[in-house]
Amino acid sequence: MASGYPGRDLRGSFGFGTGSSLYASYQQVADGGGGGGGGMLKRSVSELERQQQQMQQALLLRSVKQRTNRSPVQEVSLSSSSTSGFYFRNTYPQAEASFVESERKSTSMRNQLQELERRLLLDDEDDAVSVTAGSAATTSEWSDVMDQLLSPPPAAPVSTHNAPSPSPSTSSSASSSASCSPSLSTSRQLLLDTATAIADGNFETAASNLAVLKRAANVRGDPDQRLTAMMLSALLNRTGSPSSAAAAAHPFAELCSLEHQTATQMMYDISPCFKLGLMAANLAILDATRDQPKIHVVDFDIGQGGQYAALIHAVAERSRQIPSLLPPSLKITAVSDPTLSFASPAATNNLKLIGDKIAKLSSRLGLNVRFGVVHKRTSELDATALGCEQGEALAVNFSFVLSKIADESVSPANPRDELLRRVKSLGPKVVTVVEQEVNFNTAPFPARFTDACSYYGSLLDSLDALAGRDSADRARVEACLGRKVANAVAREGPDRLERPEVFGKWRARMGMAGLKPVEFGPAVVEPVRSRFGSFRSVPGFTFKEEAGGLGFGWMGRVLTVASAWR
């Protein structure tokens, strides 16, 4: 393995039960007797050849990598001059007893090998794990392994220093070294190797790696340890471990909860990558509707309403700066489509509370702001259904919402593109989009997992520079991120809610819907640049102007992109 952690050899340390004992026995015979497997010593040459052919067939079926285990007690070699066909090169006192005992066990070993071959063939026929479909179906052995992973680790790991060489039937040298946690520099590579093993159906290696990763994970540690904990949880969720049983019943129920919405808003408030993206969207709406007496903003996932509190403040501030300009009337319409997965009852009930907060804020600032909710399907949306009035300047805001709507890869109806075409038909002054810069939509599981490690690793690094590691708010934000990444990498098809795309794909999708990019002018860029300057005391954040968008990131990795369309 690229990580340097030979996960397959960790079985001895973590006790994977009967299944792995069969596997170990199979490996001893597959090694041609070189590992000191006493049960094969008195076989005739013809019988040896017959068993070797059977093992080669099993090897071809599963492509089991051969190992060579050398016992310090005895070494068996084939001699053409020996009448028996084998002889001992080392004759310790216990060798003869071992020789007799191995003969007694040979029949049992052969039965075990036949059982193993039967299981291997059944595994192939049943196709227990579908890489393309991302099924979480597992064998009983895999469930047993997950139970062990969820139990507390051993109190005293076995040390590798000055340890005697183990016998082939008990463990390998790698198993004792695996009892120690991997270094932080290799944890991420081990995560990637584990995801690959799961995708390939190599549960033996995956389970061993997960046990090692469990030792390196720490939700209260440094960013690498937190990332390991987050991605480990996602992998366990993918494999259908007992800890994820509730999530399996409702694949994204937690993503629609009030706690998740609250924690998401906290993330928007803490991280400049999200805060400045939302700020750019608000400024683009104000710039496109300037000098308009009536502004109507339509939103399809208003969340906790934090973006609109900032928008109302911006309208009031602009009115103070230009006394001759009467403050416009502002109407905000929240669309609740009952067919969308994230339109949960909790989110719908929360809209009334948000409306009350907006009403109090606008009254305090002396602005005329109206808030309404429309419960309509996308196919039913038009100007009348949305309550559009004559003389209104219409703006449509998509902040972190398009990525939660299924596209053609999930449903032939393609709700994502249908919504964009509906919006285009309304003739809005501006359509704003803010999204995470990561591809979790159509990428296969290993690629999604790799991108998730890179993306969330950068995001956790940036949070480490902003908030204390023991901060309660940070803990809630990272729990929110953990739910998002678990859904993104552990779920497939309609069970996956998190489906962001990179800006290049959004640009193509918007173009197919008939929308054209709107370049951000100085009225948008300069205030954002000025606000970005307030974070210069925290080096590492980046601000990048791209063709048709503004990118915000950490250490060169773009995390969010804001764009405008018409």
List low-pLDDT spans.
1-45, 59-100, 102-107, 116-143, 149-179, 242-248
The helix fraction, in percent, is: 40-55%
By CATH's scheme, which homologous superfamily of the largest domain applies? Vaccinia Virus protein VP39
Q: Mind telling me the C-alpha Rg?
A: 30 Å
Number of strands: 10
Report the portion of residues in β strands.
5-15%
Task: Based on Cα principal axes, name the global outline.
Answer: globular
**Can you tell me the CATH architecture of the largest domain?**
3-Layer(aba) Sandwich
Q: What summary fits the major beta sheet?
A: 8 strands, mixed
End-to-end Cα distance: 50 Å
> Which fold name fills CATH's third level, the topology of the largest domain?
Rossmann fold
Tell me the domain tally: 2
Number of helices: 19
What's the SSE pattern?
A: HHHEEHHHHHHHHHEHEHEEHEHHHHEEE
CATH top level class name of the largest domain: Alpha Beta
Mean pLDDT: 76
Structural class: alpha/beta
Strand order of the largest sheet: 5-4-3-6-7-10-9-8
Question: What does this 3D model show about the protein?
Answer:
By secondary structure, this protein is an alpha/beta fold. It has two domains: 7-216, no CATH class; 255-565, Vaccinia Virus protein VP39 (Rossmann fold). It is 48% helix and 11% strand. It has helices at residues 11-14, 18-30, 45-62, 95-126, 140-150, 173-177, 184-199, 203-216, 223-239, 245-249, 258-270, 272-288, 306-321, 345-365, 415-425, 445-464, 472-490, 503-512, 522-533, and strands at 76-78, 86-88, 294-299, 329-335, 369-374, 393-399, 430-436, 541-546, 549-554, 557-565. The strands form two sheets. The protein has an eight-stranded mixed beta sheet with strand order 5-4-3-6-7-10-9-8. Strands 1-2 form a two-stranded antiparallel ribbon. Helix 2 crosses helix 4 (95-126), helix 7 (184-199) runs antiparallel to helix 16 and helix 9 (223-239) runs antiparallel to helix 16. The chain is globular, with a radius of gyration of 30 Å. Residues 1-45, 59-100, 102-107, 116-143, 149-179 and 242-248 have low confidence and may be disordered. Residues 185-245 are annotated as: Leucine repeat I (LRI). It comes from Iris pallida. A motif (VHIID) lies at residues 295-299. Belongs to the GRAS family. Residues 490-566 are annotated as: SAW.
